[in-house]
């Protein structure tokens, strides 16, 4: 049997807000609430957003490998929504994107403070 990640839980201050935020950026649609979770399927993996007290949330990093077309559309939505974005994970290059390995990449925070990353090329892939 092969191994594949099926789902993971994303702690959120407001599960609907966080799921809808990421769904909007990626051009996807979050699912209906199922118990304590609001699901968002991304590339065959379900992100189950769960509301927990804000003081209990530990920042996580989620990186999404996307096509050039998806990146272009997502980046337009980031800019239209005035979501602060950065070229680096340490947020030292605000208002910029990166071009690592000949692709494009951008970092931004979701409503619960998780670090989100969109890249069009895997790191180390050359270019």
Task: Give the tags.
four-stranded mixed β-sheet; 2,3-Dihydroxybiphenyl 1,2-Dioxygenase, domain 1; Glyas_Bleomycin-R_OHBP_Dase; Glyas_Fos-R_dOase_dom; three-stranded mixed β-sheet; 127 residues; globular; alpha/beta
What topology emerges from the helices and strands here?
Elements: E1 7-12, H1 15-26, E2 37-42, E3 45-51, E4 61-65, H2 68-80, E5 85-86, E6 105-109, E7 115-119
Parallel strand pairs: 1-3, 4-7
Antiparallel strand pairs: 2-3, 5-6, 6-7
Note poorly predicted spans: none
Tally of discrete structural domains: 1
- What is the chain-wise order of helices and strands? EHEEEHEEE
Instruction: Please report which band the strand proportion falls in: under 5%, 5-15%, 15-25%, 25-35%, 35-45% or over 45%.
Output: 25-35%
Second rung of CATH, namely the architecture: Roll
For this structure, what is the CATH homologous superfamily? 2,3-Dihydroxybiphenyl 1,2-Dioxygenase, domain 1
């Amino acid at each position: 049997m092969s191994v594949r990640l099926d789902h993971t839980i994303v702690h959120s201050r407001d599960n609907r807000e966080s799921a809808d935020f990421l769904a909007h950026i990626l051009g996807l649609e979050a699912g209906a609430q199922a118990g304590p979770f609001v699901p968002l399927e991304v590339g065959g993996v379900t992100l189950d957003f769960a509301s927990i007290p804000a003081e209990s949330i530990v920042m996580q990093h989620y990186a999404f490998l996307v096509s050039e077309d998806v990146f272009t559309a997502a980046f337009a939505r980031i800019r239209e929504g005035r979501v602060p974005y950065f070229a680096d994970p340490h947020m030292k290059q605000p208002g910029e994107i990166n071009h690592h390995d000949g692709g494009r990449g951008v970092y931004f925070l979701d409503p619960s403070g998780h670090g989100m990353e969109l890249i069009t090329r895997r790191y180390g892939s050359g270019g």
